[in-house]
TrEMBL record:
It is found in: Cytoplasm. It comes from the Bacteria. This is Cytidylate kinase. It catalyses: dCMP + ATP = dCDP + ADP; CMP + ATP = CDP + ADP. Keywords: ATP-binding, Cytoplasm, Kinase, Nucleotide-binding, Transferase. Belongs to the cytidylate kinase family. Type 1 subfamily. It comes from Shimia abyssi. The gene is cmk. Residues 5-197 form the Cytidylate kinase domain. ATP binds at G9, P10, A11, A12, A13, G14, K15, G16, T17. GO terms for biological process: pyrimidine nucleotide metabolic process. It is an enzyme of class 2 (transferase). One of its GO terms (molecular function) is dCMP kinase activity.
């Protein structure tokens, strides 16, 4: 039987961290849908056509540290406004969501467009300052040469582009439960998320 947990929210809010832990807790598979857009964005930086890149994406394209750079993130958010790019990626995400044994998908439009029928929906947020601090720390740890101000500007610009686009904009689904992680440790955020999903399973 399939069971889908949709986790959306702005850049670096903690979606991936929470999704991985929630998936491990319930024994579900996890898909970071941002990687799909990052992979297309990376191809475009190498000169590819975005729609063609989205149509010919393979799971091998989703591997690699090069997808984690701020340049690729910016390119991802630019290709993500293109309707044909989004359309080319829908079926892969829906098939993943329907897999037997349960799935957690995180992104921007999972609860609204990809899986409006998801059994549980979370909208994970945090202040832009906190998110920039966390992403900065992560990039520095991975050996990247970035400034904290550039990271903040990147996060703010991507959020604005994601919220303002016509197709599948970043917005909480009406039936999503919001978790603001600004003042939560990872452990607290994860246990809150698990609590919400357990509540849904019990019909609360
Ligand atoms: O997936 P998303 O971009 O929303 O965020 P993430 O990659 O899960 O989290 C960004 C960074 O924030 C990671 O380095 C996490 O370890 C950290 N984080 C945190 O410090 N506290 C939280 N409550 C959640 C995430
Ligand atoms: O990890 P972070 O939150 O910084 O970004 P990501 O989840 O890897 O997503 C990179 C970009 O892909 C976002 O800024 C969005 O423009 C786009 N994206 C999207 O449009 N829809 C999704 N379901 C996931 C990502």
């Amino acid at each position: 039987m399939s069971y889908t947990i949709a986790i959306d929210g702005p850049a670096a809010a903690g979606k991936g961290t929470i999704s991985k832990a929630v998936a491990a807790h319930f024994g579900f598979a996890h898909l970071d849908t941002g990687l799909l857009y990052r992979a297309v964005g990376a191809c475009v930086l190498l000169g590819a056509d975005p729609v063609e890149a989205a149509k010919s994406l393979t799971s091998e394209d989703l591997q690699g540290d090069n997808l984690r750079t701020p340049e690729v993130a910016q390119s991802a958010s630019k290709v993500a406004v293109i309707g044909e790019v989004r359309a080319a990626l829908i079926e892969f995400q829906r098939a993943f969501a329907r897999r037997a044994g349960g799935a957690v998908l995180d992104g921007r439009d999972i609860g609204t467009v990809i899986c409006p029928e998801a059994e549980a929906k979370l909208f994970v947020t945090a202040s832009a300052e906190v998110r920039a601090d966390r992403r900065f720390a992560e990039l520095v740890q991975n050996g990247m040469d970035v400034s904290r101000d550039t990271v903040l500007a990147d996060v703010v610009e991507r959020d604005r582009r994601d919220r303002e686009r016509a197709e599948a904009p970043l917005v909480a689904a009406q039936d999503a439960v919001e978790i603001d992680t600004s003042n939560l440790s990872i452990e607290e955020a994860v246990s809150r998320a698990i609590q919400v999903v357990e509540g849904r399973k019990n019909g609360i």
